[in-house]
Design brief:
With 97 residues, the protein is mainly α. It has a single domain, classed as Serine Threonine Protein Phosphatase 5, Tetratricopeptide repeat, CATH 1.25.40. It has five helices and no strands. α1 packs antiparallel against α2, α2 packs antiparallel against α3 and α3 runs antiparallel to α4. InterPro entries: ETO1-like.
């Protein structure tokens, strides 16, 4: 993650606008929403992306947003499971973190 918020947002927007595939664009949109404090909407974008194609990046975004929005045991277990799903997917090189 970039320490400069303006540079990070500019990079995310450029990547989103350059995305060829809808599932990639949705992941970038999710990170933009997440970084602007819209965690529920970011989670929704991750789910939309996963409905199109399972990818490391979409599972990671979903786990990150879910982990940041809730601290209960059930959510923690869901985050671990999502990360396990992420590790089983090939990456399409959109990794943000």
């Amino acid at each position: 993650r970039l320490n400069c918020q303006k540079a990070a947002m500019r990079s995310l927007r450029l990547a989103r606008n350059s995305s060829i595939h809808d599932h990639e664009r949705l992941v970038y949109e999710g990170w933009i929403l997440y970084d602007t404090g819209h965690r529920d909407e970011a989670l929704e974008k991750a789910e939309q992306s996963l409905s199109l194609q399972r990818s490391f990046e979409a599972f990671f975004l979903k786990a990150y947003a879910l982990g940041d929005s809730s601290l209960d045991v059930e959510s923690a277990l869901s985050v671990v499971q999502l990360l396990e799903h992420a590790n089983s997917c090939a990456s399409d090189n959109l990794r943000k973190g």
